[in-house]
Amino acid sequence: MAVKNKNVFDFSPALESAGHIQLKDQYELFINGKWTKPKSGKYFKTINPSNEKVIAQVAEASKTDVDAAVSAAEKAFNGWSSLSGKERGKYLFRLARLIQEKARELSVIETLDGGKPIRESRDIDIPLAAAHFFYHAGWADKLEYAFPNRKTEPLGVAGQIIPWNFPLLMAAWKLAPALACGNTVVLKPAETTPLTALKLAEIIEEAEFPPGVVNIVTGAGATGAAIVNHPKVNKIAFTGSTEVGKIIQRATANTDKKLTLELGGKAANIIFEDAAINQAVEGIINGIYFNQGHVCCAGSRLFVQESVHDEVIQKLKARIENLVVGDPMDKNTDIGAINSKSQLETINKYLKIGKEEGLEMFQSSCSVPSKGFWCKPTIFTGAAQSSRIVQDEIFGPVLAVQTFRTIGEVIQKANNTPYGLSAGVWTDKGSKIFNLTQQLRAGVIWANTFNKFDPTSPFGGYKESGFGREGGVHGLESYLKFND
Ligand code: ADP
Fold first, then answer.
1. Which of 69, 265, 310, 328 could be cross-linked to 186 through a Cys-Cys bond (beta carbons 3.0 to 4.6 Å apart)?
2. pLDDT per position as a tens digit, 265-298
3. Chain segment 424-469, per-residue pLDDT in tens
4. Alpha-carbon distance 250 to 272, whole Å?
5. Residues of the chain scoring pLDDT < 70
């Protein structure tokens, strides 16, 4: 295996403090425990979105390569599923520990390949990925306690397709429960952020997993479709856009594949007049600007009670002016690069629509680097329910602000969306929190906080945000058959 120590200064001067990272110039497919060249000989580039420099060439898996990966997973299934839960747990614990050991390197690679601030990779994504493996390692030998008096069996080969916003964390969300329950896996990372999943494949090799238990294939939509349509795949787990989720739902509709979909969102973040306003402002900032707003559960629709609207907006604007936008590798950066050129185009399209709809736009006066993909933190005030920027998922650092007077009005407005993934509520009154959590149609509701994740807590949506849950006991159900 030709591992080259890339000169980290190729990427960014702020990497001076990044330590030693090992990246190859070219990545192959991880099939049956071996690094395998794609049959077509095709590769695609993965770039650093903060400076547009090429980081590596990555293999593009065709239908034939996917077929080889599925066969390897199918062959490995009997051995893996008949290991005791305790043995499977040992592999997962080992993987979790290795992720912790390599946390620094993984954080740097995540930030280089995806553009998110290093502080977020380092403090959130990578520790949570390790936590997810630890948590599920603990379940591997306790499934009979998770589902008492029920006879469970793994499903077989799980095909898993993940997005670019939390690359390693989404790989962990998918792999950990599947493996703990005794399934084998073919996983495809997103085409703009394949590197941490490929690094994870190296770690899986180092942890000496039996060959074929985890296969990692890279490529774009066609590679994903080959996994979805493969007859030997027993389960599909997908996180991504509602549009592709619908294609996958149609493709699996007349098969016996089990399916879970985690799709888009347009979360309401609701601020009552009795909330601790300064804390709420921090929550609004975190809700929409965390990971440049590339978050399916982002608090992208802000509802402020009319009596505190002016105070909240004034504080919000002041806070936005203080956000540091720029080099993702700088540990003081709050907002990094937009993940890709095409995502930046989508966001810019919505900025134009917001202005054309007559909404008032406010952006930070910061400057952004000339190379790379950037969007300044933005808010639109005076939005209406009918505004496109209120209805559509933008997946960028763009907040739409509306006001409300009564609790009934805000519930009605908050639920008036095709999505139902998450919501936030800020108030001093527990009774209001309980009232809202009963009536808001969202899978996850945060109270006086936002964007808090934990492996013990199930995550997933209603309506066009998808179905099935990931995390907690609920997440295990998606990877098991119940024979009773
Ligand atoms: P986004 O709009 O956030 O880029 P997508 O839904 O397009 O999200 O992508 C999420 C994942 O789905 C990526 O890994 C992508 O390659 C994959 N994908 C895209 N199109 C298809 C498809 N038709 N079938 C299966 N997977 C797909």
1. 69
2. 999 999 999 999 999 999 999 999 999 999 999 9
3. 999 999 999 999 999 999 999 999 999 999 999 999 999 999 999 9
4. 41
5. 1-19
In this predicted structure, what is the pLDDT of residue 375?
98
Give every CB contact of residue 442 below 8 A, 6+ residues apart in sequence: 267, 268, 420, 421, 422, 423, 461, 462
According to DSSP, the residues that pair with 402 across neighbouring strands are 303
3-state SS, residue 218: coil
Domain boundary assignment for the chain: 13-263+465-482, 268-456
Active site residues: 262, 296
Residue located nearest, by CA, to atom 19 of ligand 1 = 221
Q: What distance, in Å, lies between the first and last C-alpha atoms of the chain?
A: 47
343 CA: nearest ligand 1 atom: 4
Phi, psi of 203 (to 5 degrees): -70, -35
pLDDT at residue number 82: 98
**Residue 366: half-sphere exposure toward Cβ, Cα within 13 Å:** 23
Ligand 1 contact, 190 CB (< 6 A): yes
- CA 193–ligand 1 middle distance (angstroms): 12
Q: What is the pTM of this model?
A: 0.95
Ligand 1 pocket test: pick from 173, 244, 344 the residue with the most ligand atoms within 8 Å of its Cβ. Answer: 244
Which fold is adopted by the domain 13-263+465-482? Aldehyde Dehydrogenase; Chain A, domain 1 (3.40.605)
CA dihedral of 444, 450, 455, 456, whole degrees rounded to 10: -60
Q: Angle 85-101/126-139 helices, nearest 10 degrees?
A: 170
Residues 275, 280: Cα–Cα separation, whole Å: 7
Measured CA to CA, the distance from residue 229 to residue 252 in angstroms comes to 7
CATH number of 268-456: 3.40.309.10
Look at residue 114 in the predicted model and tell me its pLDDT.
98
Full DSSP string of 417-440: SSEESEEEEE-S-HHHHHHHHHH-
DSSP state of 16: G
Which residue's alpha carbon is nearest to atom 11 within ligand 1? 163
- Cβ–ligand 1 distance for 197 under 6 Å, the answer no
The residue whose CA has the least distance to atom 1 of ligand 1 is 241
**Of the residues 44, 161, 263, 393, which should be mutated to test ligand 1's pocket, given the most ligand atoms within 8 Å of the CB?**
161
The confidence score (pLDDT) of residue 19 equals 57
Q: Whose CA is nearest to atom 7 of ligand 1?
A: 241
Question: Which residues, in sequence order, are bridge partners of residue 54?
Answer: 47
- Equal CATH topology for 13-263+465-482 and 268-456: no
C-beta separation of 211 from 33 below 8 A:
yes
From the CB of 244, is ligand 1 less than 6 Å away?
yes
228 touches ligand 1 (CB under 6 Å): yes
